[in-house]
Amino acid sequence: MFRTIMHHHAASSEDCAKLCCTKIENFSVKIGRMTILDQVNLHIHCGQLTAVIGPNGAGKSTLLKAVLGEIPHQGTLHYVDAKGKHTGHPVIGYVPQYLRFDVSAPISVMDIFMACLSNRPVWIFPTRPLRRRVLRSLARVHADHLIDRRLGALSGGELQRILLALALDPMPDLLLLDEPVSGVDQNGLELFYEILSELRAKEDMAIILISHDLNMVARHADQVVLLNHGVITSGTPEEVFDDGRTREMFGMLTGGSFGQWKGRGDDCGNPL
Ligand SMILES: Nc1ncnc2c1ncn2[C@@H]1O[C@H](COP(=O)(O)OP(=O)(O)OP(=O)(O)O)[C@@H](O)[C@H]1O
């Protein structure tokens, strides 16, 4: 069950550019006779947060799974770091939208780290260095106080941060996040975005985030991609949110501009 939060190595055949970036080229996914993704091309720059938005069923989660190599797809993934020393095989960290587990199971946060980080069975008492390492990982996401908490007793936001900490060990080149649609309150969401901002700056990490909260995207993303089976439009938050196609797709009122509604919104996170 924890396979999806482990790390993946994606292969590529040639360099992408001189700057640190990931190029997603001509990604297509067909399931049966249905085309879910059609020729998606994206450049994801290191040190930037790229938010993917789009209606339900647009293929957002499918795109992340294809980048992870978890589902059959066409297209190629190229990665090159700034120094050109680590080209072609990004280490990818993945934070899934949700984790299915038995909420009554006596599994602690420490146990799940043990299961993911070492080959030791979880019933062996953790060694001190391992516990210190887990505490360091958890501190990165402001969650070291949760190390002995039972998984089933975590709030939605806390669980999301634990999954993020797991995806960051070892530190990935490319971080993929599928934000939960519900279960994380506004404070949890704010903290999560703050942590992502820290990471992109400190680790020079490329981050792709599927988000349903347009206000948070407007405030924190460097680049926004509007996806609906293909890329409808992409650019800065200003460019994408002022685009008539975005406004139409999300039922926004016409006439307003990005600057007027940035930071405001209704209770569901929709810009007014
Ligand atoms: N294994 C599958 N078999 C058949 N159809 C699938 C499969 N996986 C996804 N789909 C379909 O592909 C489309 C895209 O799904 P996906 O989960 O990628 O959308 P999404 O943009 O992430 O949606 P949401 O915002 O609702 O999470 C949907 O219509 C979905 O029903």
Automatic annotation (TrEMBL):
A family per Pfam: ABC_tran
Family matches, as InterPro entries: AAA+_ATPase (IPR003593), ABC_transporter-like_ATP-bd (IPR003439), ABC_transporter-like_CS (IPR017871), Metal_Ion_Import_ABC (IPR050153), P-loop_NTPase (IPR027417)
Entry keywords, A to Z: ATP-binding, Nucleotide-binding, Transport
Signal peptide: none
GO molecular function: ATP binding; ATP hydrolysis activity
UniProt domain ABC transporter: residue ranges: 22-253
Coiled-coil regions listed in the entry: none
Protein's recorded name: Metal ABC transporter ATP-binding protein
Taxonomic lineage of the native organism: Bacteria, Bacillati, Bacillota, Negativicutes, Selenomonadales
